[in-house]
Design goal:
By secondary structure, the protein is α/β, with parallel strands linked by helices. The protein has one domain: 3-Layer(aba) Sandwich (Rossmann fold), CATH 3.40.50.2000. The chain has a 3-stranded parallel sheet, with helices on both faces. A two-stranded parallel sheet has the order 2-3. Strand 4, helix 6 and strand 5 form a beta-alpha-beta unit. It starts with 10 loop residues before the first strand and ends in a 9-residue tail after the last helix.
Length: 177
Amino acid sequence: MEMNNHQKPHAIVIPYPLQGHVTLTVHLALKLATKGFVNTQYIHQQITKSQPDHSATFDDDIVADARKSGLDIRYDVVGDGFPLGFDRSLNHDQYFEGVLHVMSAHVVVDELVGETMETNPPPTCLIADTFYVWSSMISNKYNLVNVSFWTEPALVFTLYYHVDLLRKNGHFDSLGT
């Protein structure tokens, strides 16, 4: 991708909708001082309810203080395809499957990225949680650099990456274990 040397980089950052992923992604977004952070309604609600002053409301912008300090950052909230009252913890498998494969947010994110392409400066990259399978399609559609952001410890990545060796050597998913 050719980029004008005077153009300020602009990234859109999308975490996986679990609070631990969101927290790390917020830290990344603040470090990058980006113009684009997408969160789900449910996790936004969880974060605002957990504020120590208990004065936070659902309408609060969780990066407003960062913006007041001069960072150029935008915050958007999208649905994850499940109602706010749906218990994501009790129905983790159904939720995980829905988020990865049928989450309506990828359509919403596609629309959001399309709208953001009209801003000045337009985005130059899409940073999305590694668990998403659709980020490369959206990045390709809008000619953005696709960045896969791994939010878990390196050890977990290594275990996922080498699960075939763990199985082969009888350390995982073998008979009797």
